[in-house]
Write a structure and sequence with these properties.
Radius of gyration: 30 Å
Helix content: 25-40%
Strand content: 25-35%
CATH superfamily of the largest domain: Bira Bifunctional Protein, Domain 2
Distance between the termini: 27 Å
Number of domains: 3
RNA sequence: GCGGGUGUAGCUCAGUGGUAGAGCGCCACGUUGCCAACGUGGCUGUCGUGGGUUCAAGUCCCAUCACCCGCUCCA
């Protein structure tokens, strides 16, 4: 499938627009149009229904170790800055970068190394991105070139000290950049923040700066105690949230796939440590099945377990649900959702302070003064089981899905072009549950009372379903218009309707028609949405 | 971030320094009895944006923004 065709359809039919388009657009931001908002809402509602509101906590779900409860929450986007310090985002998403004015390259400040070289009465800091022996060799080569010396005159250069980080350097005018020919081309380090910064309060200064959340998860962790205290939930249970998150991605690309503002659908599932591996497996499989049930084909979808060295510092297991997007090279997949076993990392961080791994253990990271680098809340976030009299920090399984990525995947999967009697038909084979319009109602022609009858049916169905009325142009054209936006059913009032109160029911995928009585339409549509 | 490409009507795209175009779509009227029918009429443009060169710029130059491809980087 050609991605351009889908992008064009999305624009033409009102699924997706570039943000601020009349001003030339803004990189990494997208708007959902009238049909797009319905599609995305349907996907989010399907998720909420299947994970939370429709969940039966009295039954053991397929593959689950025991019963579990599910509740929802909706947290603020801006939170206390300490949340991000303890979660690790502040340190991780907060880099200093230096730019090279000559080579136009950008380097992470802490990843550039180098050593001082003296020759021809000049002292220069020769920088490189390599470390170890490779770094030593590279700096030698660069120094020879810079001082315009032959390889055999290497001894004319004297080296002052070992390979050190650029962080230790203050006189940037004596630095030879990793890809530069002249000295002094590197800019001083500049703050490069992957989190969006904002100011709280109209008169705010630096002390009142805050961040837009880079993930929804932390709102759940900091409310863990509130939920436990207010709802009578018992472990194991999950807290779910749908909401916007923000990341200042360096390279937004591939339509909405990597955006700077995006929507997440996240569950933090809290369980006893001894049961956590079973729950991890349960959520992994359950979440994969959710996508296939809604229409993603298993040939383009994969569940991939992370390698040991790919795991985050806190994780004891992570799997990605990935989709073979058409804009990716064959064989490559893009992430739709990550299911992570996070252990007790998050709750513990918000109790004690930012954690780092030390061997097999998580310990509070200390600052230079020997105190915690980022202090936790000091609140006791342990869970007390009054049956077993056990007090413990629950382990967490986190299925974290991207709503926009899911929406994009469903669109890609649904797009088909096919030849019908020499004409190309464009059709979105969306699952009826997520289709923006469930059915369109047409009068076959605009006479003999057909429009009146069709309008009456439309008015009645509209109370319960997202339906669309169209009497413009020939009937064939109206069918194709609906095919293109994924409407599963077209209902047409024709001459026979006046005699026996039946209408034709036309299927988007098979193009087959059947006659059904007007009274049976609602039941028929309900069945369609159940499947 | 780097390199290459693209930017003209809602969409797809023509356009040689000299009057802004086509197809599709959309709207109205008529016609029309089931898969992008037909007729008539109509709407649609800051030629991505800002500068410059020129008597004259959609066209040439510079800058900038956005999108696509390839690197690079990254949750």
């Amino acid at each position: 499938m050609d991605m351009d065709k889908l992008v064009s359809l999305c624009k033409r039919r009102g699924f997706l627009f570039q943000s601020s388009e009349i001003y030339g657009g803004l990189n990494g931001f997208w708007d959902y149009g009238p049909l797009g908002v319905e599609l995305k809402r349907n996907i989010k509602e399907a998720w909420w229904q299947d994970m939370i509101s429709g969940h039966n906590e009295l039954l053991i779900s397929n593959g689950a170790p025991c019963e579990h409860q599910m509740v929802g929450i909706d947290c603020s986007i801006i939170m206390h800055p300490q949340v991000w310090k303890c979660s690790g985002h502040y340190d991780l998403f907060h880099d200093f970068m230096v730019d090279c004015k000559e080579s136009k390259k950008r380097y992470r400040h802490d990843q550039v190394r180098g050593r001082w070289a003296l020759a021809k009465e000049q002292r220069v800091f020769i920088a490189t991105q390599s470390g170890g022996d490779e770094g030593l060799q590279e700096t030698e080569q660069k120094a020879l070139k810079f001082f315009n010396l032959r390889a055999k005159s290497l001894e004319e250069i004297s080296w002052d000290g070992p390979l050190v980080s650029l962080i230790t350097i203050t006189d940037f005018d004596k630095v030879l950049g990793p890809d530069a020919k002249a000295i002094g081309t590197l800019t001083p380090p500049r703050e490069f923040n992957l989190m969006f910064k904002t100011i709280v309060g109209a008169m705010g200064g630096e002390e009142s700066s805050a961040f837009l959340r880079p993930e929804t998860a932390q709102g759940i962790f900091v409310n863990f105690k509130n939920v436990v205290d207010s709802t009578r939930v018992k472990i194991p249970f999950g807290i779910a949230q749908i909401g916007k998150s923000f990341r200042n991605e360096i390279t937004p690309r591939n339509f909405t796939f990597r955006s700077r503002e995006f929507e997440q659908m996240e569950i933090e599932f809290f369980c006893h440590p001894s049961q956590s591996p079973e729950w991890y497996k349960y959520w992994r499989d359950r979440r994969y099945k959710w996508y296939t049930d809604l229409g993603l084909s298993s040939s383009r979808l994969q569940l991939r377990d992370h390698d040991k060295d790919e795991l985050s510092h806190y994780s004891c297991g992570t799997a990605d649900i990935e989709y073979a997007f058409p804009f990716l090279p064959p064989g490559e997949f893009g992430e739709l959702e990550g299911i992570a076993h996070r252990g007790d990392f998050d709750l513990k961080s918000h109790m004690e302070g930012k954690l780092v791994r030390s061997g097999d253990e998580l310990v509070v990271e200390l600052g230079e003064d020997g105190k915690p680098k980022h202090r936790g809340s000091g609140k006791d976030l342990r869970y007390f089981n009054d049956q077993t009299r056990e007090r413990f920090i629950p382990h967490v399984i986190e299925p974290s899905a991207g709503a926009d990525r899911g929406t994009l995947a469903f669109l890609c999967e649904a797009y088909f072009e096919e030849e019908i009697e020499g004409e190309t038909r464009v059709v979105l084979r969306l699952n009826p549950r997520i289709a923006p319009v469930k059915a369109a109602i047409f009068p076959l022609v605009n006479k003999d009372g057909m429009p009146e009858k069709a309008k009456a049916i439309y008015g009645d169905l509209k109370k319960e379903f997202a339906v669309y009325f169209d009497d413009g142009g020939a009937i064939g054209r109206r069918y194709r218009r609906q095919d293109e936006i994924g409407t599963p059913i077209c209902i047409t009032v024709d001459g026979q309707t006046n005699q026996d109160d039946t209408v034709t029911w036309r299927d988007r995928d098979t193009l087959q028609q059947k006659r059904i009585p007007i009274q049976g339409l609602k039941e028929e549509l309900r069945n369609l949405l159940k499947s």
